[in-house]
């Protein structure tokens, strides 16, 4: 969440102090817990997660924060500083009431309850600096923050994989977006200084370090997508249909030669969608190898190829995303760039030389503006560890 089009990351200390101070003035006492739940950026492996394939995301140094304490009874009372709004709901039979940040809290409570967890109510204050709808997973950050808050106050064990599954269930069944496991899983299990190769079938995870001397730049086009009910669900349905037509459980099970031999079973669009998934899985595995070998050039080349595949085969890019990618790729110090996240707007991720990174951002901002007349928001992101909680005082 929670700052539409947020610019500079405000930093952990700043955000932590802000929610703690706001908690004190709202509830008249210190909070007992402080939760941090990061956003994420995906380096490569797009739309492969729900096809049981491979992804290579990292948690970033932008996060959702919640300061909270136990509340007697079965209510959750939460105030969002970014939306200047306070909401309350009961844990006894929470009901869907339209859209809004609090639905993510409710959906998470519902999913935990459905899994048999007995939850305790809480009151808290939320704030964050993950831009909304930009492809940096503000919604999964909020769901995982809520999951961490509920497990803390309810005395439940924290298992990032189980919680990621429940957050995905909240997103799929409560919010109504058919997304995969990537976002909540990396938010739960991210490792500082590393991206993580995730096998979305076995959920096996392997850390992959950023090549020495490189940084990750996030280039926000300032155009936004609306995930719910959009082409995201349509792409997912097309992939599932292609898998059925090819007689496999998921497109993860298809190789390039299978596709050549049996691709006639698919429509033109079906073939292009499947080709993106098959080639993207191969690129993602190769990208993880390149990272282990510290090979920034090879990683960058794979990122460029990934963008072309999303533009031409998966058809989820937009003129603004293409313009940003081209501006980045043609600026000195860039190893590679691609759109990141669900598509149809949001951000581009670029792998950049550390030394001229600031100059790179300035140059890309200028050339993007010249080309599109849009004002972008460009920043560097550090790979961070996943969700954390601090106990501030006993209750
Ligand atoms: C969104 C979804 C993820 C994933 C990406 C595309 O972020 O939440 O599960 O499918 O899109 O890779």
Q: Which class do the helix and strand fractions yield?
A: alpha+beta
Q: Based on CA inertia axes, which overall geometry fits?
A: globular
Beta-strand proportion:
15-25%
Unreliable residue runs: 1-7
Largest sheet at a glance?
A: 7 strands, mixed
Please count the beta strands (DSSP E, at least 2 residues each): 14
N→C terminal distance = 28 Å
SS element count, helices? 11
Helix content: 40-55%
Mean pLDDT: 94
Q: Write the H/E string, N to C.
A: HEEEEEHEHHHEEEHHHHHEEHEEE
Bound molecules: alpha-D-galactopyranose
Computed over alpha carbons, the radius of gyration is 21 Å
What report would you give on this structure?
Strand 10 (334-339) and strand 11 form a beta hairpin. By secondary structure, the chain is an alpha+beta fold. It is built from 11 helices and 14 strands. The two termini are 28 Å apart. It is globular, with a radius of gyration of 21 Å. Strands 1, 3, 4, 5, 6, 13 and 14 form a 7-stranded mixed sheet that branches. The chain has a 4-stranded antiparallel sheet with strand order 10-11-9-12. A 3-stranded antiparallel sheet has the order 2-7-8, covered by helices on one side. It has helices spanning 12-27, 101-114, 138-154, 160-175, 182-189, 231-246, 256-262, 268-292, 296-314, 319-329, 357-372; strands spanning 33-42, 54-55, 57-70, 75-80, 85-90, 122-128, 194-199, 205-209, 214-220, 334-339, 347-353, 377-381, 383-384, 388-391. Residues 42, 46-47, 49-50, 137, 179-180, 182-183, 341-342 line the site of alpha-D-galactopyranose (GLA). Alpha-D-galactopyranose (GLA) binds next to helix 5.
